Amino acid sequence: MPRILVPRIEETVVLVTGASGGIGRAIASAFAGAGARVFGTSRDPASVRDAPEGVEFLEWDAHKESSADACAASALERAGRVDILVCNAGMGIGGSIEDVPVADAIRQFDANVFGVLRMLRAVLPGMRQRYSGLVLVVGSAAGRIAVPFQGHYSASKFALEGLVESLRLELRPFGVRAALIEPGDTRTGFTDSRRSLPSSPAYAEAATRAIGVMEKDERSGADPAGVGALALRLARRRRLRVRYPIGPAFQLLALGLKRILPSRAFEAFLAVYYKVPRTGVRP
Question: Is 153 a catalytic residue?
Answer without folding.
Answer: yes
